[in-house]
Amino acid sequence: MPELPEVETVRRGLATRLVGRAIQGVSTSGVALRKPTVCALEDMEGWVVTGLRRHAKILFLDLEREGQTRVLSAHLGMTGTFRFAESGDPVLPHTHMTLHVEGFEVRFRDPRRFGWLTLYPVGEAATDAAGYGPDCLSDAFTQEHFRTQLTGSKAPVKAFLLDQAKQAGIGNIYACEALYRARVSPRRKACNVPAGKVEPLYHAIRDVLQESIDMGGTTLNDYVDTLGDPGTFIDWLDVFQREGQPCQGCQATVKRIVQSGRSTFYCSNCQR
DNA sequence: ATGATCTCCTGAGCGC
DNA sequence: TGCGCTCAGGAGATCA
After folding, report:
1. Which positions in strand B are less than 7 Å from the protein's CB atoms?
2. Which of A92, A194, A244, A261 lies 20 to 30 angstroms, CA to CA, from A33?
3. Closest nucleotide to A264: CA versus each C1'
4. Quick one: pLDDT band at residue A180, thresholds 50, 70, 90?
5. Residue with CA nearest B9 C1'?
């Protein structure tokens, strides 16, 4: 499941081969994704990719043509992938968009269709991240911002971390891992996180995300990068999907509970 | 207003 | 062997 580190890995991969290239053609499946696009994706034909940006889990493809600009936003949802391909490669099922570029193709595939592709009109900015808080790895995500948001929320701290409006980019994996690293119980209300644990939790979030990027992200089931390679951060997960296994710190058994309908993995002995 | 729950979707895994 | 059930969760919509 792509979270910030996986999307950043995809962004870097796409940037290496796509920036400066003209989109010569666009093929689509016609199947509806999570959100409808504003303009037809085919309208990207003839536009040049000038850059790839990311805010949290959203990718932005900047396009330019004859002095004008526009943007394509993309979200990978649960099972979305961007892959480089040769024109003769077999097209896998659930391939929803293919960008034809000189010498190769870029294909967006998403079996469960939780992702989206939105092409905005010429000159318009993308609004996908309008309700989002600062990206967790950006300078805007300060310790002060985090403290203010945290102390103002009565939600369980695990649910708080997943709230993209508070700070954006954390998904289920890294919420569990950051809480474990900071030794904070996921069941504790955000506003009741001990004062002395706020800074450790802030740094745990930043560290775990950055370390995962360095490892190419985490692959549980579906995620692969633009070359089809899985991320290897799974080997460094302390608690996620480790129910029943001993905690690395105290040898107690890692537990799994459900919060807001999602699995939370933690050590009830270490995390208080 | 805020937090909790539901919904969308497909494929993997499991039990009978 | 094969069918049907459950589960996975990002995030917008809806409910409490």
Report:
1. 2-12
2. A261
3. C9
4. very high
5. A112
Rounded CA separation A155/A199 (Å): 19
Q: Scanning the structure block, which residue is given the tokens 């493809």?
A: A61
Q: For chain A, what percent of residues have pLDDT higher than 70?
A: 100
pLDDT at A260: 85
Measured CA to CA in angstroms, residue A143 lies from A114, A164, A197, A205 at distances of: 32, 16, 12, 11
Determine whether the distance from the CB of A171 to the nearest atom of strand C is below 7 Å.
Answer: yes
* The amino acid at A239: V
Cα A7 versus chain centre, distance:
5
Q: Are residues A80 and A111 in contact, defined by beta-carbon separation less than 8 angstroms? A: no
Spatial CA neighbour of A237 closest among A228, A226, A247: A247
Mean pLDDT of chain A: 93
Whole-angstrom distance, CA of residue A228 vs CA of residue A270 = 37
* A262 CB contact with strand C at below 7 Å: yes
How many Å does it take to go from CA A78 to C1' B13? 18
The whole-angstrom distance between residue A244's C-alpha and the CA centroid of its chain comes to: 27
**pTM, to two decimals:** 0.95
Provide the CA A109 to C1' B11 distance, Å, integer: 14
DSSP state of A231: P
Q: Give the pair of three-digit tokens for residue A114.
A: 């939780």
A114 touches strand C (CB under 7 A): yes
Residue A23 near residue A43 (C-beta atoms within 8 A) = no
What is the rounded average pLDDT of the residues A173-189? 94
Distance A154 CA to B5 C1' (A): 17
User: A28: burial class by Cβ within 10 Å (0-12, 13-18, 19+)?
Assistant: middle
Token pair recorded at residue A122 = 């010429």
